[in-house]
Amino acid sequence: MAAIDHKDQFKQRVRHWAGKLDVKIAWLGVRPMRSKWASCSTAGHLNFSDELPALKPELWDYVIVHELLHFSVPNHGRLWKSLMRAHLGDYEAHERALKRIATSSAPVSPLSPTASPAPLTPPP
Ligand SMILES: [Zn+2]
After folding, report:
1. Burial 24-44 (b: 16+ CB within 10 A, else e)
2. Is residue 43 a contact partner of residue 5, using CB atoms and an 8 Å limit?
3. How far is the CA of 46 from the centre of ligand 1 (A)?
4. How far apart (Å, rounded) are the C-alpha atoms in residues 88 and 45?
5. In the chain, helix, strand, coil percent, each to 5?
6. Sorting pLDDT into bands at 50, 70 and 90, what band is 54?
7. DSSP assignment letter at 2
8. Measured in angstroms, how far is the CA atom of residue 38 from the centroid of ligand 1?
9. What is the 83 CA–ligand 1 centroid distance (Å)?
10. Which terminus of the chain has fewer Cβ atoms in its 10 Å neighbourhood, N or C?
């Protein structure tokens, strides 16, 4: 469970990077997300998964810089990769770590879009 103060720290971190990368954020949200860590739009809207603040700050940086770079580089091409490396170093290790977390902590069945209800225990 992500503590409130982690969420605040996370948002501060986003603003720190936004200042560094000269990105104007119109909206910054941290909310439950499915199958993605973050999303951004060219209008300056940024949303991050509320599971992120509970993870290691190195992983915050990966997701934050990843999204912020999309404001100037819309794809994951050579320019994007070289900027990621310039800011984060070995970002691919973080990418792999996040993929592992996403696949291990989210046992979401494609057949049940919502969490399955707790099994009913029959009365004795
Ligand atoms: Zn991306």
Report:
1. ebeeeebeebeeebbebeeee
2. no
3. 12
4. 23
5. 50, 10, 40
6. very high
7. -
8. 9
9. 13
10. C
Give the pLDDT of residue 40.
87
Q: Tell me whether residue 1 is exposed, middle or buried, using C-beta atoms within 10 angstroms of its C-beta: 0 to 12, 13 to 18, 19 or more.
A: exposed
Q: Residues 6 or more apart from 44 whose CB is under 8 A from it?
A: 23, 24, 25, 26, 27, 71
**How far, in Å, is the centroid of ligand 1 from the Cα of 76?**
6
How far the first Cα of the chain sits from its last, in Å, is: 33
* C-alpha torsion sign, points 55, 99, 97, 87: negative
Question: Which residues have C-beta within 8 Å of that of residue 53, sequence separation ≥ 6?
Answer: 2, 3, 6, 7, 9, 10, 30, 60
Average pLDDT over residues 98-117: 62
pLDDT tens-digit profile of 72-88?
A: 999 999 999 999 999 99
> pTM above the 0.90 mark?
no
Residue 37 Cα to ligand 1 middle (Å) = 10
Structural domains in the chain plus CATH codes: 4-104 (3.30.2010.10)
* Residue 113 CA, ligand 1 centroid: distance in Å: 24
